[in-house]
Amino acid sequence: MIHFLHPVFTILILALIVYSFMEVYNNKSYKSVWIIIVTMIIMIGFRKFVGADYPIYLRIYDYVGEEVSFSEFFNNKKEHFLGVEWLYALLGKIVYVLDAPFFIFTLIIAIISIGLKYFTFQGSVVYPALSMLLYIFPSYFTSDGGHMRQAVAMGIVFLSFSYISKRKLLPFLFMIYLAMGFHNSAFVFVISYWLVLVPLNSFRILLLVLGSIVLSPFEIYKYISLLDWLIPSEVHSGFQAYEMIDQANPGSIKLNDIIYLLYTYFLVTYNKEACEKIPYYEYMRNISVLGICFYFIFRGSPIFSSRLSVYFVIFITMVIPNIIAAVQKDTLKKSLHFIMVCFVIFYYFVYASMQAPRARYNYIYDNYLW
User: Element (H or E) spanning 67, and its range?
Assistant: First the structure.
């Protein structure tokens, strides 16, 4: 049986596909894509009991609003009282005391998390609509429409890229501090400021990825106690609800393995052209390479391989559209774009079949606007 997402999401994805064709074939971006982005924000912001973590976040919102005083946000034990990162809780407290319902808070979160991401795409990617299309699966549903705290942290991390490219350390560190106020795991991204300066070529990229694959069976993450602090305990309880794409045995090949190898192919094959034509491509490339390496190193832990690598590998949504833009041969450019569109369509049906029913993004999706 073929499964589909809710019709509104299907239309949004089709619209982004159309815009991506317009970008690649006309070699320009379109401001009107913001109409799609605003609709995406509304669909996530006004969702009604959609996403596996929704009930948990609703309880946190009510608890912080009713039980936590503003003074507790500034004492040394604020994590003990709040149970979540302080800046996320503070924002929720402010919205709550204004007597706003929870869906207003989720709307504000969606505006920040989704808006920051597309704003960054517009500033750093030749084809921003294609970047947003690649971002959708699965991050739009599982992060923006699920793990809201990490979604905002990812948006701030995206925004920090401009400070990395301008080599402004203090503003970059401030961005990381803000991101950690929404999710502790954003701390891992601090290494990116120096990582982007590491000289890489196609051979070195391939060597790093292959080395990470070799390290995968050793599960070295089990010996790094810092990881338990970066991934709060409540993540483990709700993770299985809808995060997993496949349930393969640890030693078998997973769908994500193939996806990350596809990303590696793009990084290795078109590295030279992209470096020559795309400003700061080396920076976003290095970040993406580390994300792929993290994925394979943490492969034995579904939580670590997704939650820690995501801050880095998500930059592949900027890298691949820029690679396509850098390719000089027109037929190859269009062929690569077509491959990525087919990849998105394939992922659409995978997500609609395996994750959407549990997260309620299929026909049972509900929204406060109707």
Answer: helix 54-67
Token pair for residue 29? 């971006």
Cα dist. 149→109, 153, 262, 347 in Å? 8, 6, 29, 24
Amino acid identity for residue 106 in this structure: T
Residue 255 sits at φ, ψ, to 5 deg, of -60, -40
How buried is 69 (Cβ within 10 angstroms: 0-12 exposed, 13-18 middle, 19+ buried)?
A: exposed
Q: pLDDT digit string (tens) for 195-217?
A: 999 999 999 999 999 999 998 88
Model pTM score: 0.91
Q: Name the phi and psi angles at 297, rounded to 5.
A: -65, -40
Q: Which helix H or strand E contains 350, and what residues bound it? A: helix 330-354
Say how far apart CA 282 and CA 280 lie, in whole Å.
5
d(CA 348, CA 356): 10
3-state SS, one letter per residue, for 69-87: CHHHHHCCCHHHHHCCCHH
Band (77; pLDDT cuts 50, 70, 90): low
